[in-house]
Amino acid sequence: MMSIRPFVLQLILAVTCNGYIVKDGNCSMVSEKLPVVKNFELEKYLGKWYEIERYEQDYQRNMECVTVEYSQGEGNQSFEFKNKGLLPEKNAYASFSGSGILSDPTAEPLVGKLNISYGIKHAGDSNYWIMDTDYTSFALIYSCVPIVDTASVIEGYWLLSRMPELPEELQILEKVKFIQNTYFIADHVRTTNQSQSLCRMEPKEPVTSDILIFPLLPDVKIEPRK
Length: 226
Ligand SMILES: *[C@@H]1O[C@H](CO)[C@@H](O)[C@H](O)[C@H]1NC(C)=O
Ligand SMILES: *[C@@H]1O[C@H](CO)[C@@H](O)[C@H](O)[C@H]1NC(C)=O
Ligand SMILES: *[C@@H]1O[C@H](CO)[C@@H](O)[C@H](O)[C@H]1NC(C)=O
Ligand SMILES: *[C@@H]1O[C@H](CO)[C@@H](O)[C@H](O)[C@H]1NC(C)=O
Description:
Number of domains: 1
Strand order of the largest sheet: 2-3-4-5-6-7-8-9
CATH topology: Lipocalin
Order of helices and strands: HEHHEEEEEEEEHEHE
CATH architecture: Beta Barrel
Number of helices: 5
Structural class: alpha+beta
Bound molecules: 2-acetamido-2-deoxy-beta-D-glucopyranose
Radius of gyration: 17 Å
Shape: globular
CATH superfamily: Calycin beta-barrel core domain
Distance between the termini: 27 Å
Number of strands: 11
Helix content: 10-25%
């Protein structure tokens, strides 16, 4: 199970760096009202996405130029992915990869919930929910990870785009704004720099591919439950 070790709890009480959103409750409580895509079509979701915004995550800390590429896995209900991001201070790209599978491959209609695993294959958590997407321009992602032996969870939020910039279409901007304002804390949303000047110098080989293991110990900020 993808989860964070108990001694993180001490950090939660002590550390107030920017970053994680911690909420009281379990994931089903916390995400009860969250929208999820219905009639999900995995094939249309595959391909490359650029990260436009996120809640900071420890394994992504300070990363810019983040992209993720989803490719067909075994069968039509699973996929492989490769995440990549620039660590500007190191002037190096880091990458990590994994796989995913529909949380419920038999659901009719299919819903946009996926079980993602980093590295070693296991698919024990429905931890990647697509809240909204049109497949061709944007996707809004949610994740919830329980903190072991606590009654708290860590939330994730990502906005992805097929292009390095989100298209300036009113309909898309309004959807994003609505979901952000309704379910997330706008102040904690971090913009990912996708500028050409920063992102073009992509080396062929990622330099730090093996040092990133999910999950790492987070810097945690306590947020009062809304
Ligand atoms: C989550 O918490 C609620 C309220 O305490 C409880 O009813 C529910 O069974 C819990 N769900 C899980 C999956 O633990
Ligand atoms: C996967 O392929 C099977 C057989 O071709 C088909 O019945 C099913 O609808 C496909 N599922 C998805 C998620 O595309
Ligand atoms: C995905 O994870 C959930 C638990 O969150 C589990 O019930 C389900 O069986 C998993 N799906 C697959 C296809 O492994
Ligand atoms: C992105 O990075 C470039 C190069 O460092 C910088 O010039 C630019 O101001 C940054 N853009 C944002 C939105 O931070």
